[in-house]
Amino acid sequence: MILHLSRKALEEARLFFEEAGSRGCEGTGMLAGVRLVDGWRAERFLAPEQRASAGPGVWVEVADRGKAQIATALGPGELWIARIHSHPGAAFHSATDDSNPVITAEGSWSIVVPYFGLGLRRGAAACAFFIRQGGRWRQVAPDDVERCVRVGA
Ligand SMILES: [Zn+2]
Question: What domains sit in the chain, N to C, each tagged with a CATH number?
């Protein structure tokens, strides 16, 4: 099973996260796309309306209006394939990330981008990838990311 990521959508995510990062804030977004026979294709980035704190204690959360955007933004045949958010430093899932209810369907993805989005300048390999399986988030081992995640048109 392969997660195909649109280069354009990742680029939009990177620009959004870097802009938030320039204010010391994390950013969060969603990737919409379709299921494929052999995996997923994430094609479109959405940054829902959100609130963020630059500290102490950096956090970001989707605002109520953003939740409404997420609930209504899908086109016909589209699904939310992944949530994607940035961290100030290393890419990992915090306890908050694990319990975040924005997307919990089996087979959905969570992508964490390090360094306020700058990590995406080096491509997807710098990010941490989690897949929802058996009701919990399981991290995809870095070696497997190379095999399971493709960035393309
Ligand atoms: Zn996080």
Answer: 2-152 (3.40.140.10)
